[in-house]
Amino acid sequence: MEGAAAVASGVRDLLPVLRDRAQEAEDRRTISAETIKSLAATGFFRLLQPARFGGYEAHPVTFFGCVRDIAAACGSTGWVASVIGVHNWQMALFPDQAQQDVWGDDPGTLMSSSYAPTGRIKAVDGGYRVSGRWSFSSGSDHATWVLLGGIVPGEGDTPADFCTFLLPAADYTIEDVWHTIGLRGTGSNDIVVADAFVPAHRSLSFGDTARCVCPGQEFNPAPLYRIPYGSIFPNTITTPIIGMATGAYEAHVTYMRERVRAAYAGTRAADDPYSQVRVARAAADVDAAWLALTADMNELMSLVTAGERLPMRLRLRVRRDQVRGTELAIQAVDRLFENSGGRAIYTSHPMQRYWRDAHAGRVHAINDPERALSMYGRGEFGLSVADAMV
């Protein structure tokens, strides 16, 4: 796809600028408007957007490859780009009227999100009343709509549905609470909603996304939009962490080529066989994480393009590989940090930022390894894996 390839090339050309802005993003606790404009100018945010709104409907590997490269230059920018960028994919699943609400006047409109169902939802005539507070809405400063997760109550204590609700900026406020040790530049602030009305067409059931049967598919029939939410979104979290590990690796090797270890009688670090082994192990971990992710996405796309049903075992494997990808990337960053020596703890050294950013990304709920791996194990033993569908 020529357009998507041009986007990837444009993103690569932008990387030196993003690398130079990394400290500025951390200091400001948000990436700059100039960075968002620069990414938009490459066409990055249109990669997963429907073609009828000017998008590229690109292969997920193209999108994730760009995210990895951006995060290798600046972890916070890669995180925001990944999360905001995938929202155009999810918006394609909403009813057509919701898509028109967001993109009808401006196809470049961006959305932030917070999916943990921490607010209050009440079903009313024509839609829902939504109130409460949602945390960790990355890039919210640069968005004019937000996607919020919420549980629709049913009879008794049984939820009727778990949905994503779409709200315009006029219906919520952003509260600046983002004072953290990692991913400081993501501006992942709180979203506060005070009894907003959300029309029914601005809601999307997670059950529908799990079954891969959503109202937006009538208008956006491309195979891209028949992949499960649970196979796409988790990898938008893991991919930036793989990117951070990639950036840490590149920074580490560059630094170690010139480093002389004073504690070891002036030995060049590059000549140390133990250091060489640590570098090799880190490289193997990063490569393994990326190869598994791309292989999974390629298989998913191959099946949906052929019109075939996605087997549950594949969907479970995608989640298994996603959490393992995060683990491998963190393992690589830790090994490189430990191998970098005392100067890696100086704030002027990029290694400490990669280490902090990667560990901050690690604590995202989607990276819970035991939960995902136990689902895979249950599937292998022929037990119920209903949780894997979301």
UniProtKB/TrEMBL annotation:
Residues 237-368 form the Acyl-CoA dehydrogenase C-terminal domain. The keyword Glycoprotein does not apply. CDD domains: NcnH. Keywords: Monooxygenase, Oxidoreductase. InterPro entries: Acyl-CoA_dehydrogenase, Acyl-CoA_DH_C, Acyl-CoA_Oxase/DH_mid-dom_sf, AcylCo_DH-like_C, AcylCoA_DH/ox_N, AcylCoA_DH/ox_N_sf, AcylCoA_DH/oxidase_NM_dom_sf, HsaA. Coiled coil: none annotated. GO terms for biological process: fatty acid beta-oxidation using acyl-CoA dehydrogenase. Belongs to the HpaH/HsaA monooxygenase family. Residues 18-103 form the Acyl-CoA dehydrogenase/oxidase N-terminal domain. GO terms for molecular function: acyl-CoA dehydrogenase activity; flavin adenine dinucleotide binding; oxidoreductase activity, acting on paired donors, with incorporation or reduction of molecular oxygen, reduced flavin or flavoprotein as one donor, and incorporation of one atom of oxygen. One of its GO terms (cellular component) is cytoplasm. This is 3-hydroxy-9,10-secoandrosta-1,3,5(10)-triene-9,17-dione monooxygenase.
